[in-house]
Write a structure and sequence with these properties.
With 127 residues, the protein is an alpha+beta fold. Helices cover 21% and strands 36% of the residues. The protein is globular.
Length: 127
């Protein structure tokens, strides 16, 4: 397991509601969690579903997308964020009210399900 990665959030996205096209986000922070060994998208997606099913999460997935994507609420921390699986990584997308605790707890659960495997955490910030 990676030693105490930081889930500090330097930038939250700004929500915009353009006329007639739903909601868009500008800027923000994403955490990319990469396993120490290569894993197929389906395997990573199954792992995420197992974590979400075990709780304490309320979640919904988005259908008809080219990648697995869930909107997640941690019922213990009240943090809401998106989880995506793409290019061999599990990605945690920060939303306007997301705090670090929910992201850290999801990461800890991911590490616990990985049978001793470690994960690298990279933070990407969009201006």
């Amino acid at each position: 397991m990676t030693t105490d990665p930081s889930f500090a959030i330097p930038a939250h996205p700004q929500r915009r509601f353009p006329h007639g096209s739903g909601v868009e986000y500008e800027g923000g922070t994403e955490f990319r969690l990469t396993p120490d060994r290569e894993r197929a998208t389906a395997e990573l997606a199954d792992t995420v579903v197992d974590i979400l099913t075990d709780g304490p999460y309320r979640y919904g997935d988005f259908h008809d997308l080219p990648m697995p994507l869930w909107l997640v609420r941690d019922e213990e921390t009240a943090d809401v964020f998106r989880v995506a699986v793409r290019d061999g990584t599990v990605r945690l997308h920060v939303l306007p009210t997301t705090e670090s605790d929910g992201l850290r707890r999801f990461f800890e659960r991911l590490c616990d399900t990985s049978e001793g495997g470690s994960w690298a955490v990279q933070r990407h910030v969009d201006g």
